[in-house]
């Protein structure tokens, strides 16, 4: 069984791929699949790096990845979509549908363990309608709707059917018949309610019972339900231990999500942790960028003389900081996406240089673009996933020459203590 996962950013590829690793599959994330001479065996997750692209470019990236994976004889396709529906969801699903040509695409972004559920076709995050959450204020692509069929129609003209929770939990035969009916009517998108892990398992079972050929689209929640259905192995109850503990852990936090900033505040309060803030507005022009990165490199050299438990590099993320960066960017002719990308590139360059220069082997990377920048600059083009620190927070090993281990985390995922827990995990410390 060859399983392909298509994700629009690196943290999404990792947190979905690791659901397969939890059930015994060999799961590898590829950062640049098109330039790789061959495909790994097992589950392959491809980061198309397309979340912030214009819709037509995102379509092209995903279409190209589909064609590559089809040539490599992958049989099952999973389109990872953000659990808060950020990005080019409609355009990328359209690309998958046209190129893979399934009977339909099952769309179920619910991730109950992370507080994401779909009820009546509407997505809720911790009980709040999606458009009223932080996703509705996303600086790059605010999500202003909660009803999934309407969200899909923004970038696709394809018909959409909704399978409600009542139908999902009702008569199994009637549900299978409805699914087959959608195939007969050539409805390409089937949106499913799901409020619990049991609902996600019902979706997998119902589509299997229908006999239809589906592409699956969801977040880590649906991926876990599929992995449990496909695997004969028992689920791992704890992550694989890294082979060596100790040494400084390097963290790079590029997300300005409020949850990430709470996590950052928590780890910075720990003893033996040194934090260095990169002023985002200073990295938008070449001269000030060079001065800012030089300042931080010197500060890192001073800090590393004391062998800290962790060196935490982070972009300024307060509301005023973000606004200053946007204002300065606007004066330079940069839109919000360009400003965000420039900050991620600078933080990635800074972190990778320090990691490489000091031989740091344990990394924690928050924010998809930040994670991608660090990995690329270290020469890594793949991550072998080994387990989860907590739901949606995967652990893996880079394929670079440094034999480095990494925890990746999307901005909105993880408990407030997740960065503290990652530090203890890598250093093999018990919680005090």
Overview of the structural elements:
The protein contains 14 helices and 18 strands. The protein is of the alpha/beta class. The protein has two domains: 3-230, Rossmann fold, CATH 3.40.50; 249-427, Molybdenum Cofactor Biosythetic Enzyme, Chain A (3-Layer(aba) Sandwich), CATH 3.40.980. The strands form two sheets. It has a 15-stranded mixed beta sheet, with helices on both faces. It has a three-stranded antiparallel beta sheet with strand order 6-7-8, with no helix packed on it. Strand 16 (382-390) and strand 17 form a beta hairpin. The relative contact order is 0.14.
Shape assignment: globular
CATH topology of the largest domain: Rossmann fold
Share of helix among residues? 40-55%
Q: What would CATH call the class of the largest domain?
A: Alpha Beta
Mean pLDDT, to the nearest integer, reads 93
**How many discrete domains?**
2
Can you tell me the residue ranges where pLDDT is under 50 for at least 5 consecutive residues? none
| CATH architecture call of the largest domain | 3-Layer(aba) Sandwich
Question: Mind summarizing the main beta sheet?
Answer: 15 strands, mixed
Kindly estimate the percentage of residues that lie in beta strands according to DSSP. Answer: 15-25%
- How many β-strand stretches? 18
- H/I helix tally: 14
Q: Which quaternary structure do these chains form?
A: single chain
Structural class: alpha/beta
N-end to C-end Cα span: 44 Å
CATH superfamily of the largest domain: Putative sugar-binding, N-terminal domain
Spatial order of the strands forming the largest sheet: 9-10-5-11-4-1-3-2-16-17-18-15-12-14-13
Rg, Cα atoms, Å: 21 Å
């Amino acid at each position: 069984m060859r399983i392909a996962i298509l994700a629009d950013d690196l943290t999404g590829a990792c947190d979905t791929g690791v659901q397969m690793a939890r059930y015994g599959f060999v799961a590898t994330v590829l950062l640049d699949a098109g330039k790789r001479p061959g495909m790994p065996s097992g589950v392959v997750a491809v980061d198309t790096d397309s979340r912030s692209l214009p819709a037509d470019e995102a379509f092209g990236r995903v279409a190209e990845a589909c064609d590559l994976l089809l040539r490599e004889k992958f049989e099952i396709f999973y389109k990872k979509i953000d659990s808060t529906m950020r990005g080019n969801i409609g355009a990328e699903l359209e690309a998958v549908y046209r190129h893979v040509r399934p009977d339909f695409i099952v769309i179920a972004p619910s991730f109950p363990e992370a507080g994401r559920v779909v009820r009546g076709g509407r997505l809720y995050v911790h009980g709040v309608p999606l458009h009223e959450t932080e996703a509705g204020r996303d600086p790059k692509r605010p999500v202003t709707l909660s009803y999934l069929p309407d969200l899909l129609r923004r970038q696709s003209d394809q018909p959409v059917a909704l399978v409600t929770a009542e139908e999902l939990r009702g008569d199994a035969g009637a549900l299978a018949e409805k699914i087959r009916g959608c195939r007969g009517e050539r409805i390409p998108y089937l949106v499913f309610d799901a409020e619990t892990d049991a609902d996600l398992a019902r979706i997998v079972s119902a589509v299997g019972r229908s006999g239809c050929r589906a592409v699956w689209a969801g977040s880590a929640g649906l991926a876990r339900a599929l992995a449990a259905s496909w695997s004969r192995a028992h689920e791992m109850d704890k992550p694989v231990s890294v082979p060596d503990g100790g040494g400084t852990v390097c963290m790079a936090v590029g997300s300005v999500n409020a949850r990430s900033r709470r996590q950052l505040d928590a780890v910075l309060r720990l003893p033996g942790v040194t934090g260095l803030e990169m002023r985002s507005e200073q990295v938008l022009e070449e001269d000030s960028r060079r001065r800012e990165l030089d300042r931080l490199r010197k500060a890192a050299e001073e800090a590393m003389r004391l062998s800290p438990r962790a060196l935490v590099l982070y972009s300024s993320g307060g509301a005023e900081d973000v606004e200053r960066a946007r204002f300065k960017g606007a004066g330079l002719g940069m839109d919000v996406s360009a400003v965000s990308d420039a900050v991620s590139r600078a933080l990635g360059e800074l972190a990778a240089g320090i990691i490489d220069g000091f031989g740091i082997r344990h990394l924690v990377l928050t924010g998809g673009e930040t994670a991608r920048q660090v990995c690329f600059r270290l020469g890594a083009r793949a991550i072998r996933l080994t387990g989860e620190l907590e739901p949606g927070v995967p652990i893996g090993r880079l394929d670079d020459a440094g034999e480095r281990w990494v925890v990746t985390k999307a901005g909105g995922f993880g408990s407030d203590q997740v960065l503290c827990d990652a530090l203890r995990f890598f250093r093999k410390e018990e919680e005090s």
